[in-house]
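sorry for the late reply, my laptop died twice this morning and i had to redo everyting from scratch. anyway the thing you sent over, i finally got around to it. pasting the sequence first so we're on the same page, its 260 residues, then the predicted structure underneath. double check i copied it right bc i was rushing
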Amino acid sequence: MPGKVRLPALFVGHGSPMNALGDNEYARGWRSLVQDLPRPDAVLCVSAHWQTWGTGVSAAERPDTIHDFYGFPEELYRIRYPCPGAPDLAGEVAGAISSTSVSVDPDRGLDHGAWAVILHMYPEADVPVFQLSLDASRSPAFHYSLGRELAPLRDRGVMVVGSGNIVHNLHLADMSGDGDPYDWAVAFDSLARDLIDGGRHGRLVDYVSLGPAARMSIPTNEHYLPLLYVLALQREGEPVTYVNERIALRSVSMRSLRIG
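ok and here's the structure:
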């Protein structure tokens, strides 16, 4: 589309679904990532909370708000984010990806990795949102390469948002929120920033080689993989801006970033 401004790519550390409620430091950080940007024509979200065998893209005209969690206050389950979908774009994305076949799901709604964040960025729910799933059978290198195939979207008015957490170990999380972050969580979050700043994406793709702190921080990789999609979209010389640079619950990095 001629005349379009190249949009940044975002990675959001989404943390607890409770961050969808009200106004807190994380919501303000997420809003700051988009406050000086033109309104996108659509948002493509790669979320930790849509894992599949094979790659899928959501194509609902009016995606449901999926409450894919339990044990939270009733007010959280009452939230609806009634944004439109982007079925035409979903079909185009499925057709444009050459590294793997992509199935189009006409019924898939938005999981909380998408809506609980995007509702703070675009509270009027007037920006179409669709999602790309994470193929759980594939390697981190596959996901990084697939992310590269999404690069043309940035010049077509589509903002790509990865939603997960760089450090995500819920087994060791302190739900009281009172404790200091674990040393290994701080160490890996800091290392990840250093590698991002240095453009050393290969080391982040091969995160299993980064030592014990990485293994503690990424016991399963579904929350980490969305970061790789966003890093894959970085072009030479593009700056990185960070917000929400802290560890919640001792073991969940809320670090969020904007490329471009």
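Residues 139 and 205 are 9 Å apart (CA to CA).
thats about all i looked at so far, will dig more tmrw
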